[in-house]
Amino acid sequence: MSTKSPTEADILRPIKNTSKTYFILFAVAALALGIFLVGWAYQLYEGMSVTGLSDWGTGGGVTWGLYIGAFIWWVGIAHGGIILSAAVRLLGMDRYMPVARLAEMLTLAGLSAAGFYIIVHMGRPDRMVTSVLGHYHITVNNSPLVWDVTVITAYFVLTATYLGLTLRYDITRMRDDLPEIFSPIYKVMTLGYTKEEDDVIERMVWWVALAIIIMAPLLLHGGVIPWLFALLSTYPGWFGAIQGPQFLTIALTSAISGVILISYAFRRAYDWDHIITDDVFRGLLLWLGFFCLLFLWLQLQQLVSGSFSPTTAHEAATASKLSHPAYIVPITMVLGVLAFIFATTIRPALFTKARAIAAAVLVLVATLVEKTYFVVAGLWYPAFNIYEATPGDYFPSLIEMSSVLGTIGLVTLFFLAISKVVPVVELHAVEHLRGDHGHGHEDETHEHESEPEVKA
Amino acid sequence: MSADDESFHPLGKEWESELETMLDDTEYDSDLGMEMAQDAMRVTKGELSEAEFHEKYHEDVMDEFGVDDRPTEEAYEAAQQEAKGTVGRMLDAFDGDGDQSRRETMKKMGVGAAVGLSAWGASAAPDASFGSTQEGDAADDDNDGLQWGMTIDLERCDGCLSCVSACSEENQLDQGVNWMYVLRHAEDGQTADDLGNHPAGGYENMLVRPCQHCTDAPCEKVCPTTARHTRDEDGLVLTDYDVCIGCRYCQVACPYGVNYFQWDEPDVAYEDIPSESDVLPDDLDPEDAVYSEYDDMGDRWVDGRAPRGVMSKCTMCPSHQDGRRGDEMVGMTACESACPPGAIQFGNVNDSASDPEKYASNPSRGRTLERLSLPSADEVEEELEDADGDDLEAVLDAVSFDGMGDDLVDNEHGLGILIALEITGEHMGEMGESEGTANLADYEQQVLDILEVVEDHGLDLGSQEVLADLRLADAPEEEEAEDENGDEDENGDEDEAEAEDDFEGPDEDDAQRLIEMFAGTAPSSFKLLEDFGTNPNIHYLGNEPGPNAEQVEGPVAYDSLELTDNRKDVLDDSTVTGGLY
Ligand code: SF4
Ligand code: SF4
């Protein structure tokens, strides 16, 4: 643990310095995105037949696959970021203040990636606006897909507002140190700023945070996203009330993992050991363990209720889970992560940052595979399973697989770009760490180590 | 049942209160309706006689509905006959004159009272469900508007795939896009070898699967664009190819797996649809093959193979139903006209005169009409010219009715069946109001024409003797029989006279039996996955596949007709795998 005191210069470093690694990372991310864009262009040119998808029923395949799995995955990642940040504000979880803004940014990036997937998944993306908006007043009454688009948009707007409001404070104060070329952006962002507004903004942000923290679990990942599936009684693998909580726990595991990875990357790149402390990682890891536990617990519920005395179709769906690697492997991975985190609480020495990173990566891979399996296997085992071609086959095409790398590249580029324009750590966090708010961070560290779960 | 709860109705309290609500919605006195329904139940249970029932309500009914001039004594007499209190008879008693049909009376009384009274029937058949009561009413009531649908007789399907082929030709579908799909299935532990022919002429365990054009279509509900919609005017569930964004949620939400996405450029270009198709006239404007008129929205592209990137499925040929291709194609689909055994009956399922409703209400009769190869009336007339007289024997000698169907035992049966078809026909020769063509109505008309020729020749087909010889009525009683019976001498003459006068025409049961002997019966019928609340508009005759049923090899292979069964075989060719997997 560093004893350096955080300064404004620290949080300005990403804006002011650009290393070779930055350019390399930028190039790699752009390449990943580029490869996918080429693949997508080919898909637009040839048609969706370039994917591994087909029709379910007599068509021997599934009509939703990796694109939809990855869509849910990104919404999940996006989801937790802002919840974490809202929790900092509402529940006083100050320890995470240094990563709160990164988490908010992850939300915007994740939602963008998810939105991109909606378009990529579509047969006629050119009609998105005319067909969807043109009939919105009718379709919003019935179509869970329209609910999804609505809530995701609302969520994006709320998060952007939230971020924008909190940035006004920082930008005004650091305006002189910020690069001149972006001044038009800063001007717009700080339009009409006065010192007196700080309190008002603080209160507004609090309300927005409240809206987010209520809306996210109830509407987004515990609501409209699982409802895409859970409302369809003809798919035993999907149907039922448990998908709300199940999706939410999966989303939170992936979101925390995402925050761990992003925070670690910034800490490493800009020597922020004294800002994003080990303590943050310990805390995040504990939360990750908690949500992994819920994740697995709800999976267990599904396995038990799907095995004890299921309907014929439900039995087939459960049997597939118990035998398909795309289910067994991710569940084992999450179980492993949970075991590790549990072990670190008994023997804190087992914690290392490398292991925390590994845990986060495992969870992210596991949730992506599990979500894709969930989508695909639902369609494999419908109630009407008479067709010889049902369950069908599915293996994603190279273009579909490249979309995952492409969207990761997109999110990386988003962070690389935004970190050049605005501070990714709040000025408040620095002030807080310096003890401007009345308590030093040594005390905190001490408390956290003895009773991390309570404080977390 | 009602005995041990407070509800008078065998379907229980809940149903009763529903009934009450329905009654409240009609313009007539709901208390009266409920009371009548309640007493109707008492009549069934024997607590009240029919005469008492009529006595009690005569005045009320007069006040309320303005009919009921039938004397109560008559009702008493009716009750005296071995009464099987049916709703129909009870209601008939209120009929003013022959003109006012029972249906009209029921309508006048309002649905609630009518359905309430039909509880009566339900108590006789304890397992009659609310659903079937309701269905019965819907079939009876032609007022529900046009809803295209089908009755599919699975026991007549021989798996020839003619319908699949015809659909594919009509719509110029890509390989593997099987809007119409026919499969054979086996239950757990069975194989294709365990399955054989069905006595009705098809194969066992067939399933013919078009889109069910559900009244409560989940596919429509989930669509984010309204591209998937139900046409108000005729209940068809269609996709507007110009609006669909290809999200495929409809395919996901449909429980039946009938949707086919257009994953890439269709094989046949739009302008080539008519010329490439074997069944469309080459000079047809493609627009007349694929566009459809809407009352409120003008023309929409909803038929034929889909363009790239949008969803498609069986459409039930709206281009036919709209009359764009001539009136004679209204009420017909490509698959229906292609099906050799006539297993597919398309029409307005809300009209009891339509093919599907005629067929479903009496499958034996429907099968008979489809199976007979009827001679033309002219042929029969010609044959009759050489007849040796105008009695039954002479007619049967002259005309070979046994040529109509291979299973016919002899000529007598042949003529008998024709008469039986007329006896059992409720809408002989009629078709549904909205239809321009109807197979069964055509066949019925042919039957009528033949019978007319025979009658014109001089044979009285309504006479008891002829009908008795054809086993469609009891033989007239003979004098000796009475004479021998000393005890009844007194009344003998009267009886005889009565018998002559009272010949009430042919025996419907005998007629039905004759038809059933020829074509068999279809004891079970079902709608597919009805418990998911989709309200499908395909009515199947035959056995419903069990929960463990699995498709097995069918009698005819898809590729033998240049069709593709599993579309993935085609689509896999364009999947980008880099040759790695
Ligand atoms: S079967 Fe029903 S749910 Fe399926 S596509 Fe047809 S109308 Fe829609
Ligand atoms: S694929 Fe087309 S018709 Fe089907 S739900 Fe999506 S927009 Fe509607």
UniProtKB/TrEMBL annotation, chain A:
InterPro entries: NrfD-like
Protein name, per record: Polysulfide reductase NrfD
Membrane topology: Multi-pass membrane protein
Protein keywords: Cell membrane, Membrane, Transmembrane, Transmembrane helix
Stretches the record annotates as Disordered: 436-456
Family under the similarity heading: Belongs to the NrfD family.
Annotated transmembrane regions: 21-44, 64-90, 102-120, 145-165, 205-227, 247-267, 279-300, 327-346, 358-381, 401-418
Gene Ontology CC annotation, any one: plasma membrane
Alphabetical list of Pfam families matching this protein: NrfD
Localisation: Cell membrane
Source taxon at top rank: Archaea
TrEMBL record, chain B:
Keywords of the record: 4Fe-4S, Electron transport, Iron, Iron-sulfur, Metal-binding, Repeat, Transport
Keyword Iron-sulfur: yes
InterPro entries assigned: 4Fe4S_Fe-S-bd, 4Fe4S_Fe_S_CS, ET_IronSulfur_Cluster-Binding, Ferredoxin_N
Residue ranges, annotated region (Disordered): 348-367, 475-511
One of the record's GO molecular function terms: oxidoreductase activity
Ranges of residues in domain 4Fe-4S ferredoxin-type: 148-178, 235-264
SUPFAM superfamilies per UniProt: 4Fe-4S ferredoxins
Ranges annotated as biased composition (Acidic residues): 475-510
Transmembrane segments: none
PANTHER family in the cross-refs: ANAEROBIC DIMETHYL SULFOXIDE REDUCTASE CHAIN B-RELATED (PTHR43177:SF5), PROTEIN NRFC (PTHR43177)
Protein name: 4Fe-4S ferredoxin iron-sulfur binding domain protein
Organism: Natronolimnohabitans innermongolicus JCM 12255
Lineage: Archaea, Methanobacteriati, Methanobacteriota, Stenosarchaea group, Halobacteria
